[in-house]
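Holo prediction. Input below; ligand is fe (ii) ion.
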Amino acid sequence: MKEYKIYHEIINNNKYKREMEFMQHGDYSVYDHSINVAKTCFMISKKLKLNVEVESLIKGALLHDYFLYDWHDKNPKHKFHAIDHARKAKDNAIRDFGLTKKEENMILSHMFPLGTVIPKYKESIILCLADKYCALSEVLNSNYYYRKAKEWVQS
Ligand SMILES: [Fe+2]
Ligand SMILES: [Fe+2]
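Structure of the complex:
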């Protein structure tokens, strides 16, 4: 994936690097999570020899959670984060990077079956699967949840 210019353009962009400030799953920031998801999407497309638009696959995957806030805070605006964040990520991504219709669909439908947007492209389906796989792996690999469980048992 490192041979693609779009990968470096996005992960080295200062606005994008704000994702490092926000945690996603356990010990993984939104930045770490998004890179994991992009790499997984890329691997799936290679392993299955899928004919995809690789640049869009990488771009949509890197930007799928570009909502830029801490969803763990108690702000009532983030109450419906699970349903709302894809639209926020899409709006931010259009503002800072521009998106094709396919990339918009990738971001808007990545929480499918949650939400109302259906994945319409191969790239969207790959992202939807890779995101769930990475979320689970990150939760299982995080010391954060182990520490929380230990605290709970000891309390
Ligand atoms: Fe998401
Ligand atoms: Fe995600």
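DSSP finds seven helices and two strands in the chain. That is the main takeaway for now.
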